[in-house]
Amino acid sequence: IELSDVPKFSYDQSSYFAEATTFIMTGSHLKYLTAFLNSKLSEWYFDKITTTSGVGTNRWKKIYIEDFPIVRISPTAEKQFDLLIDKAISDIKAGINSAETDCQINHQILNLYDFTEQERNLILEFKKL
After folding, report:
1. Concatenated DSSP letters for the chain?
2. Separation of alpha carbons 59 and 61, rounded Å
3. DSSP readout, 78-104?
4. Is residue 110 a contact partner of residue 123, using CB atoms and an 8 Å limit?
5. What mean pLDDT do residues 107-122 have?
6. Residue 9: phi, psi to the nearest 5?
7. What is the Cα 47 distance to its own chain's centre?
8. How does pLDDT run across 48-99, given as a tens digit for each residue?
9. Handedness of CA 23, 27, 31, 34 (dihedral sign)
């Protein structure tokens, strides 16, 4: 959705229809993009570059998503993200908290960049209560 305090990207193979305003991506690398765009890095980055509603939500607009510097990865690395997204989906369907899988995704996303330990911690701790 466009106005949100956190990223809310979904991966769908079941041909669901959206009830309200939604943006849809098609093509390849969709599980990796789902992992990437839902990551803490994405949340932190969008908070810095997007327009805010003034009440704690950001506008997740296409123009910002298109300009996001997403790292291209090898097919082998992409397969790891595919498996993690499959696990997160399976956990959610089973009513299991996917926090551990989310944590694995976040760490793998951050490993794609040359962040210092301090930068990694800043991103991982962003918006924690």
Report:
1. --EESS------SS----SSS-----SS-HHHHHHHHTSHHHHHHHHHHSPB-SSS-EE--HHHHHT--PPP--HHHHHHHHHHHHHHHHHHHTT---HHHHHHHHHHHHHTTT--HHHHHHHHTTT--
2. 6
3. HHHHHHHHHHHHHHHHTT---HHHHHH
4. yes
5. 95
6. -95, 140
7. 13
8. 888 777 777 877 778 888 888 899 999 999 999 999 999 999 998 999 998 9
9. negative
Residue with tokens 């979904």: 10
List pLDDT tens digits, range 31-62. Answer: 999 999 999 999 999 888 887 777 778 777 78
Triad 36, 70, 10: Cα angle to 5°? 30
Q: Which residues 6+ apart lie within 8 Å of 101 measured at CB?
A: 84, 87, 88, 91
User: 3-class SS at 4?
Assistant: strand
